[in-house]
Specification:
The protein has twelve helices and no strands. The protein is an all-alpha fold and 233 residues long. Helix content is 78%, strand content 0%. The termini are far apart. Helix 8 runs antiparallel to helix 12 (200-225). It has helices at residues 3-7, 14-21, 23-30, 33-39, 45-71, 76-103, 108-113, 118-133, 136-158, 169-175, 178-197, 200-225.
Amino acid sequence: MDGSMQSTETTESFTAAAWDRIAPIMAEIEALPLLQRLSDGTLPPEVFRHYILQDALYLKHYARCLAIVAAKAPDNAQVLRFLGSAQKAITVEQGLHAGFLTQFGITSADVTSAEPSPAGFAYTNFLLATAYHSSYAVALSSILPCFWIYWHVGEAIKSRPVIEGNAFQAWINTYGDPQFAAGAREVIALTDIAARAASPVERAQMTDVFVRASQYEWMFWDSAWRLETWPVR
């Protein structure tokens, strides 16, 4: 089941409304050249190398965001559920990165010396600032698009015919994997629980950060396709 199917199950939920709100953004994400050519195996290696390096840098900061959000959870049950789902996602992504870093000849020194792109830098700083300065519900809503959009994209690509010899098949398998899907579903459920206890003002803030993070997801992939670097040094 992909993210769009998930959103129709509980039409009154916060996450259903938030997913519907980003439908235009999702249409743009699904049309991104990077994802189209990753799907059919024609993505230039230098583009994927740039993307996976940026993603490794992103994950380092994203993991810290998840820890901050977990610390703000209102009860131990939500802390434990959130940490469990977050751990699933991080473990899956770290395994994926390790394989691709080796496959594409990227060394640990390359990762250490890599500089975040403008889009990646902006995205991680947005998430960290939101996690630090916002309520649990708002912070949780800001980190949800990364889980949900990757799940949705992975499911969509996985449903297409397998291209023999696709060097990026492991990426497709990872984000279409049931383990990753389970983690995403849990974070969606936790966001709905938090939204039910939130004030109208807080729910509006939750929507705002959910939309902004979704825009950053588009920007992150688009910037990798363009091999984005800092324009001045």
